[in-house]
Amino acid sequence: MHEMVKGGNVGLAALSEDTGSVILSLGWSTATGEGDADVSVLLLNADGKVRGDADFYFYNNPAAADGSVQLLGKAPTADGSEDRVSLDLTAAPAGVERIVVAASRYGGARFGDLADLRMTLADRAGETLLGFSIEDASVETAFIFGELYRRGEEWKFRAVGQGYESGLAGLATDFGIDIDDDAADADGRDQEAEEAVAVEQETSPAPQRTVPAQAAPAAASKRPRTAKKKVTLPKVAKKSLAENDSWRLARLFPVSSLKSDRERETRATSVLLSVIAQVPEFGRRLTAAFGAPAGRMETFTEVSLPHGGNAPRRPDGVIRVERAGKLWTALVETKTNGNPLKSEQVQDYMDIAARRGYEAVITLSNDVALDGSPLVDVKIDGRRKHKVALWHLSWAEVTHHAQMLIRHEGVGNPAHAWLLQELLHYLQHENSGCHGFQNMGPAWVPVRNGIDDETLCQGDRRAVDVVESWERLIRQVCLRLGGELGQKTLPVQRAKRGTDQRSRRAALADQLCQDGRLHAELRIEDTTGILAIVADLRTGKLRTSLEIPAPDQGYPLTWVKRLVRRLAEAPADLHIETLVEGQGGGPRGTLERLRPEPGDLLPKDGDRITGFRLSLFKSMGSTRGNAESGFIRSVDEAVDRFHAGVVAQLERRPARRAAE
Predict the structure, then answer these.
(1) 447: closest CA among 518, 357, 344?
(2) In whole angstroms, what is the distance from residue 555 CA to residue 660 CA?
(3) What are the residues whose beta carbons fall under 8 Å from the beta carbon of 263, sequence distance 6 or more?
(4) Residues 125 and 18: beta-carbon distance below 8 Å
(5) Whole-structure pTM value
(6) Are 28 and 104 in contact (CB under 8 A)?
(7) Residue 498 region, left (φ>0) first, then alpha (ψ -120 to 50), else beta?
(8) What is the dihedral sign for C-alpha 599, 602, 605, 607?
(9) In angstroms, how far is the first alpha carbon of the chain from the final one?
(10) Closest C-alpha among 600, 594, 557 to residue 572
(11) Is residue 85 within 8 Å of 41, Cβ to Cβ?
(12) Sheet containing 115-122: order of strands
């Protein structure tokens, strides 16, 4: 990998032969895991200005119609998170000379509060070509990490590392973005830009976050303007015309007749690939992450391909994209109903793809991939010049992206929105087999028994298996919750940069053997604090909790009274604990008991209150699956109940400090 220094530049062709499409990753970390930033991309002409507002891509305008830019969203890393951007350089308009990649913070947060600011660039096969670290960030609220620029027919990369104290609005203004001066919207949201056109004009989706007003202190009401309006489905279904509940709507993709795993795999592959080809926003959203260019897409199923002197192989599907006379091809191998991928099968497809000059093999199953823990082991022949990328997609990710488009971000027309809704109905049907991660694995029961009778020893491989399954479950919880809320939801992993993933999980497994608990933390965009989940395998209890800081001003008695009032509709069994400086926990009680006497939360000796911890407890399922008595379902239910009953209550009053 080529390591860049500030101001340095390098030609992409010197690093790889396959840089027509690249993936840029911007990462950072904090000690608490709470720091975050948003990525943006600007397309500039020869004068260094955008050709129009449409050349500015950020969280409210995440993709270019020609596929040249696609914001892929955030992904968890061992020490924080990273935001990824797909750039199809072959699709960049002729008038675009530079592509600037930046990031911004909001709410007064500065880049100096983040650690390990770094940008990497990978080619279409996923191989990292270059990296650039920023080490001098301080008071800036927006940063240009780097830019790609043309030199004749070649694209080059320059490491910029330039910051702005004026935030995203200041950065955007410098490059010619129009700023909307209308301050009528007091909370900093541009309603005209945010409201999507609902199907048949019946309703509008929840507004998306636009550039924050506080991004430019000198012009608090200014924010970049976007005018894109997209179609989403109504939140409330129209009244049915059926005479009674026994009448069922005709579905585009029927599921009830599926009887075998083979039927489920065949149907699921065909349904998904057909929708990918017909709904451009959905197809591009999925394939851009795999290095596919933007272009005309066709998908195929049950294609027979020769395999040397052996019998032909039949991958479940093929995706082909044509761009400027060139073809990008990926073979697809699908599993449903929890069936595992087979290494020898995937290896065959990797070999076939290499011989035929295909770019990728995509595996699709209920399982969730983890860094450092591949789902299948394949061997790459280093003697081959042509590289084939192996990617994995879980059914939970497919569902998440469909939900984000039809419920929150919108697509191009009502027919596409309806197609995505039919796909989502299919994926969520109990008979489809596309339900995501649903089994904690064969090690779950032995580990629980070993913890219960104190025979589980540190170094036991089964404990590592349980830790990996727990991590997969938490990632799926984030996908599901994020898709329902329309908010980025990511697991928080507290580890030093460069920590080996296997070593990290081995340490967590030893901790599980010692205290019998599985720990996880979730960060939900635009909400206060970190949602913590603890599964105590000794007591069989799940604890979901949230810590909120004490206000900077006012009196402690006022704080606790306001907190109890804000939680008026929260569950009566919610536990509230006062956090006391130097002591951790202080007075505590259930909301039911504290409602008439909130003063009971005050420390008797007048110690300084640093915050409050809100917790709900639930019995966890004992079985390893997703049945009614299963552990996975109990975790989903615990998170949903805590978010709806506690987090949503706290966030009802915008622009207010927690507990005030």
Answers:
(1) 518
(2) 10
(3) none
(4) yes
(5) 0.81
(6) no
(7) left
(8) negative
(9) 50
(10) 594
(11) yes
(12) 2-4, 128-134, 115-122, 21-29, 80-88, 69-77
The pLDDT tens digits for 507-518 are 999 999 999 999
d(CA 435, CA 636): 13
Alpha carbons 593 and 630: distance in angstroms, whole number: 32
Residue 380, CB half-sphere, CA atoms under 13 Å: how many? 11
In DSSP notation, 600-637 reads GGS-TT-PPEEEEEEEEEEEPP-BSSSSTTBHHHHHHH
- Two structure tokens written together for 89: 């350089």
Structure-block tokens of residue 506: 């081995």
Average pLDDT over residues 589-618: 92
* Alpha helices per DSSP H over 15-145: none
Alpha-carbon distances of 521 from 287, 334, 638, rounded to whole Å: 29, 31, 13
Quick one: CA torsion of 366, 402, 636, 239, rounded to 10 degrees? -130
Whole-number average pLDDT of the chain: 85
Q: Which of 366, 365, 522, 333 is nearest to 438 (CA)?
A: 366
- The helix/strand/coil state of 442 is coil
**406-431 mean pLDDT:** 90
What is the C-alpha to C-alpha distance for residues 139 and 398, in angstroms, rounded to an integer?
Answer: 39
Any idea which of 193-197, 239-243, 371-375 has the lowest mean pLDDT? 193-197
CB 154 within 8 A of CB 20: no
Provide the 3-class DSSP secondary structure of residue 88. Answer: strand
Q: How far is CA 116 from CA 39, 129, 465, in A?
A: 16, 19, 30
- 3-class SS of residue 352: helix
Q: Is the pLDDT of residue 323 over 80?
A: yes
118 phi and psi, to 5 degrees?
Answer: -155, 145
pLDDT at residue 217, rounded to an integer: 37
- Count, in order, helices (H) and strands (E) of the chain: 14, 30
- Identify the pLDDT of residue 182: 39
Query: Rounded to an integer, what distance in angstroms lies between the CA atom of residue 233 and that of residue 285?
Result: 19
3-class SS letters over 257-292:
CCCCHHHHHHHHHHHHHHHHHHCHHHHHHHHHHHCC
Q: pLDDT digits over 422-466, tens only?
A: 999 999 998 999 988 889 999 999 999 999 999 999 999 999 999
- Residues paired with 531 in a beta bridge: 522, 546
Q: Please name which of 136, 170, 138 lies closest in space to residue 7, comparing C-alpha atoms.
A: 136
Asked if 99 contacts 267 with a C-beta cutoff of 8 angstroms, the reply is no
Structure confidence by residue, pLDDT tens digits, 113-137 = 888 899 999 988 788 999 999 999 9
